[in-house]
Amino acid sequence: MTFRILFDGTVAKHLDAPDDNEDAYRIAQDRGRVVLSDGASESFDASSWANLVVDQFIGSDPSDEQLGLCIQAYGLLHDPQTLSWSKAAAYERGSFATLVIAQNDHDRKTVTVTTLGDSLVAWCNENGEIETVPYVCADQFTEKPTLLATRSALNAEVAIGDQGPWSQREWSYDQQETCLLLCMTDALGAWLLHRQEQGYSDAFERLSGIRDQQVFLELVEEERASGAMRRDDTTLIIVTLNSLT
Amino acid sequence: MSYSAEISRTSPTAFLFLVDQSGSMQDTMTNGKSKAQFVADVLNRTFATLITRCTKSEGTRDYFEVGVLGYSGATAENGLSGALSGTVLNPISQIEAHPLRVEDRVKRVDDGAGGLVDQSIKFPVWFEPKAGGGTPMCNAITTAAEQLVAWCDAHPDSYPPTVLHVTDGESTDGDPEGLAQQLQQISTSDGNVLLFNLHVSTSGGDPVKFPSSDVGLSDNYAKLLFRMSSPLPMHLHKVAEEKGINATMESRGFVFNGDIAEIVDFFDIGTRAAQLR
After folding, report:
1. pLDDT attached to residue A162
2. Which residues contact A3 (CB under 8 A, 6 or more apart)?
3. Between chain A and chain B, how many beta carbons pairs sit less than 8 Å apart?
4. What is the pLDDT of residue A59?
5. Which chain A residues are within 8 Å of B124, Cβ to Cβ?
6. pLDDT digits 0-9 by tens, A13-43
7. B6 contacts in A (CB within 8 Å)?
8. Is A43's CB within 8 Å of B60's CB?
């Protein structure tokens, strides 16, 4: 098998409120595809928006038309005419989310990653070399990311026909050895890059070695408690790829 | 690192607005409104913006506690009335629930085809303009300090409170500098209380925005307000830069000779606390 999920899990920002988790992801192992979205906290209904985004893009490539369908579906969830003034104002302001799509190409022995926003993808090749996209240093997480918005007017910058703020990267795994692909939301991504910059070379190994939700939860809570990781919804998906048939 | 605490329902922050309501606030600005009326409009809009940032489909989350102290004559008192008159700092959900009224107003927006169209909007009002009497700034700062000592005791690890002080004239009840320094000594484990000062003017003089020194300030009063203002935390530099303001490590949260645009920017920058989660 060339594309196999080793782990997927999520930890809500507050453990006693798991339903408030605004991260969403979908996996289509048979089609070699992973989609991840992080709903922004300052949103009217980030959870619904992130879920609509992953539902749409697990089955289709990014296009303005597909994004339009997401916005249309979101519009059916709420009627601003029936909302209080404050909810109507928050609805009008919009909901926002990141997007990561990782697509395996079995024949070409490549994986293509497309990202918008500050969710991070890390790739470890057969030599143990690590690359990340869209960010390469922790300080980049302090920048204001461009996100998919529920208001079409706010999506002008993310017109999918243009490169704009989108990042795309293709990695190949044509050797026999196994490569790893890690998709994660921003708190974990910032933690990983910051730890690497501090010289903690085991940070990637700690993450990529996770196979169990309890271990993941313990790592996240431990790092939150020490102040090394921001308290935010945190999601990790680990994929292994190799060219063995 | 200071000013980095996450802001959440279990660890909120506070915004306290100190508003000069002395007689000179009746003076008319270039937009035809009195300073008192325009400051009230911006304050009400700032409340609405804070509420919008905290409102999700299930309701308004208490990320912030918010209050107003208005001062004039010889006293400083709660600037909010009705259900919000019992305490100075109220959870933002209580502010959301208790506007004095919600007005229907019209704003002009881009029609997407190069023109403008009128759009009806809801404009909630919590704070009414008022102007008369002297400028008891010392009393106002002392009252604010009493409120914030209690607040910081109750929230020892929160992002510290921000005080946004709007005035148009000199104190009539003594020198406020020492009291302002004491106010800024009140702290949580995440940093000291921030005091930002806005001087509103109808003089037409050039506004000074977030200066890094008092060199170039026109008089002793402006220099006094500069010394009374907290340094701008690092994360607010970026917010200032988005508005074309070149902030440095030494920049203070201070605007002198502020007119319409500066008043709006001052409230916006001052209420952008970090890490809303």
Report:
1. 63
2. A29, A32, A104, A106, A111, A239, A240, A241
3. 49
4. 94
5. 85
6. 999 999 999 999 999 999 999 999 999 988 9
7. 230-231
8. no
CATH of domain B13-99+129-270: 3.40.50.410
- Contact call for B57 and A78, based on CB within 8 A: yes
Residues B128 and A155: their CA atoms lie apart, in Å, by 38
Give the residue extent of every domain in chain B.
Answer: 13-99+129-270
Q: What tens digit of pLDDT does each residue of A55-69 get? A: 999 999 888 899 999
CB-nearest to B56 from A45, A142, A232 is A45
| Residue range A105-159, pLDDT digits in tens | 999 999 999 999 999 999 999 889 999 999 999 999 988 899 999 998 888 877 7
Q: Across the interface, do A90 and B122 touch by the CB < 8 Å criterion? A: no
Q: Choose the closest CB to B102 out of A13, A85, A231.
A: A85
* Distance of residue A216 Cα from the nearest chain B Cα, in angstroms: 21
Q: Minimal CA–CA distance to B78: which of B111, B27, B126? A: B126
> In this predicted model, what pLDDT tens digit does every residue of B163-183 receive, in sequence order?
999 999 889 999 999 999 999
Q: Which of residues 85-104 of A touch B (CB under 8 A)?
A: 85-91, 93
Cβ–Cβ gap B8/A87 under 8 Å: no
pLDDT along chain B (277 residues), means of 10: 86 95 91 91 93 94 96 95 95 96 85 82 92 96 98 96 93 96 97 94 82 87 93 90 89 88 86 62
- Between chains, do B51 and A41 touch, taking CB under 8 Å as contact? no
Among candidate residues A242, A5, A244, the one with its CA nearest the CA of residue A110: A242
**Which 222-241 residues of chain A touch chain B by CB within 8 A?**
230-232
Q: Report the predicted TM-score, pTM, of the whole model to 2 decimal places.
A: 0.88
* Contact check, Cβ <8 Å, B55/A231: no
Q: Does A109 touch chain B (CB under 8 A)?
A: no
Does residue B82 come out as left (phi exceeding 0), alpha (psi in the -120 to 50 range) or beta? left
Alpha carbon separation from B201 to B13, B34, B39, B207 (Å, rounded):
30, 11, 12, 9
Query: pLDDT digits over B91-133, tens only?
Result: 999 999 999 999 988 888 777 778 888 888 888 999 999 999 9
| Count of other CB atoms within 10 angstroms of residue A202 | 10
DSSP string computed for A161-185: TS-TT-EEEEEE--SSS-EEEEEE-
